[in-house]
């Protein structure tokens, strides 16, 4: 069934719809299906270096997070509304 918002009466109504049959796909020959392939580019060689750099900065990030956590806990963390507003403007421009 389908919902017809603009039926003949102009009111919300339901109209029966013949059940749709799924499309029939022809049988395919396995030899005609191309094989998937994968290859690595020169850019893939930089992945280990990028991973090492990201993991090395994890300690620095943990230190920053801990410093911020302590500042929030002791109510010494302050926000600069002008800096926040400017960052929001820069983001949308």
The number of helical runs is: 2
Question: Poorly predicted ranges (pLDDT <50, ≥5 residues)?
Answer: none
The dominant shape is elongated
What structural category arises from helix and sheet content? Answer: mainly alpha
- What is the CA-atom radius of gyration, in angstroms? 30 Å
Instruction: Compute the average pLDDT.
Output: 75
Order of helices and strands: EEHH
Side by side, the strands of the main sheet go 1-2
Helix content: 40-55%
Number of strands: 2
Strand coverage percent:
5-15%
Distance between the termini: 48 Å
Q: What does the main sheet amount to?
A: 2 strands, antiparallel
Write the layout of secondary structure elements.
Elements: E1 2-4, E2 13-15, H1 47-73, H2 81-92
Antiparallel strand pairs: 1-2
Structure description:
The chain has 93 residues and is mainly α. 42% of the residues lie in helices and 6% in strands. The chain has a domain at 53-93. It has helices at residues 47-73, 81-92, and strands at residues 2-4, 13-15. A two-stranded antiparallel ribbon has the order 1-2. Strand 1 (2-4) and strand 2 form a beta hairpin. The radius of gyration is 30 Å and the shape is elongated. The model has no long low-confidence stretch (mean pLDDT 75).
Question: How would you summarize what this structure contains?
Answer:
With 93 residues, the chain is mainly alpha-helical. It contains two helices and two strands; from the N terminus they run ββαα.
Which features would summarize this protein structure in a list?
93 residues, mainly alpha, two-stranded antiparallel sheet, 2 helices, 42% helix
């Amino acid at each position: 069934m389908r919902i017809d918002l603009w039926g003949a009466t102009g009111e919300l109504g339901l109209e029966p719809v013949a059940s749709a049959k799924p499309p029939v796909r022809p049988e395919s020959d396995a030899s005609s299906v191309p094989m998937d392939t994968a290859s690595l580019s020169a850019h893939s060689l930089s992945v280990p270096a990028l991973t090492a750099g990201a993991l090395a900065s994890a300690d620095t990030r943990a230190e920053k997070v801990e410093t911020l956590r302590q500042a929030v806990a002791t109510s010494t963390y302050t926000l600069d509304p002008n800096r926040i507003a400017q960052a929001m403007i820069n983001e949308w421009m």
